[in-house]
């Protein structure tokens, strides 16, 4: 045995090195595709090991979860406590516009809890750290080639249920009970889910409006968090039921099969993709924040032209860009029933 082998080193031949490179490339491709080599639809939402720090450029107009625990902790319940579960729903921005968006069925969803032992109520919801617009469209910063995204979403847990807020134009309904022990297990799941699911996704992208449509991308928003919570509660043994129809807001885009374009370095760091990079920046320019009324009117016309006439939409999903070949009816906001599990 030579000296390198005695130290535990492995000297690779050129042929083996090339084979390893091919294997690495295959694994990278398979991470985007199914085992049969075809693209997996819907594209799986990417999870992360931990939540990244917030860039100082991103600043919320309204602070995120102002009355919740700064470290995201959820109170511990006694094992024998009885915890009531409430379904909460209200129009988006109801505090500012009243029921206006409720008439369009644009609703925000949350879950409420009440401890029999202490009589304390709690609200749990998942929403954007930097408001919806920043999670849906990026900023175009002159000093940066790639669009800059302020996109994070997170769970917020705080004491109290604002009965009037949830019930006046929406829903506040008890749907079940769990023990304190089951609640503590749910709390651990919420913290794990919150740590690994870090960004908000507004759009659900389908091939067409039919019941058998292919889902290209799934949204990741407040209602999806509520659905995941209900499923987890059911796994923990809760029996959930509602006297009213359990409808939820969905915002759909309709397109043919999407084309994968790449991440920031792929697109904005490669001279060969300069035209694609230009098209993406031009597309998002129509959705830039802080526009005057006149600028907004022009931007809406440009966005309409891109989506309807040019049948083009650039989607940012899993920190990667996809091109959507849009098709009628292009976009739709629905209020669909999703039964309790």
Describe the model.
With 341 residues, this protein is of the alpha+beta class. The protein has one domain. The protein is built from ten helices and eleven strands. It has helices at 3-6, 14-30, 94-97, 131-136, 163-167, 180-196, 222-235, 264-268, 274-285, 293-309; strands at 82-91, 107-115, 121-128, 153-159, 171-179, 204-206, 215-217, 247-255, 259-262, 312-317, 320-337. The strands form two sheets. Strands 6, 7, 8, 9, 10 and 11 form a six-stranded mixed sheet that branches. The longest helix has 17 residues, at 14-30. 28% of the residues are buried. Residues 1-12 and 15-35 have low confidence and may be disordered.
The SS-based structural class is alpha+beta
- Beta content: 25-35%
Low-confidence stretches: 1-12, 15-35
Element order: H for helix, E for strand:
HHEHEEHEHEHEEHEEHHHEE
SSE layout:
Elements: H1 3-6, H2 14-30, E1 82-91, H3 94-97, E2 107-115, E3 121-128, H4 131-136, E4 153-159, H5 163-167, E5 171-179, H6 180-196, E6 204-206, E7 215-217, H7 222-235, E8 247-255, E9 259-262, H8 264-268, H9 274-285, H10 293-309, E10 312-317, E11 320-337
Parallel strand pairs: 6-8
Antiparallel strand pairs: 1-2, 1-5, 2-3, 3-4, 6-7, 8-11, 9-11, 10-11
Pfam family, one: CLN5
Signal peptide: 1-31
Family: Belongs to the CLN5 family.
Keywords:
341 residues; alpha+beta; six-stranded mixed β-sheet; disordered N terminus; palmitoyl-(protein) hydrolase activity; glycoprotein
Question: TL;DR of this structure?
Answer:
The protein is an alpha+beta fold and 341 residues long.
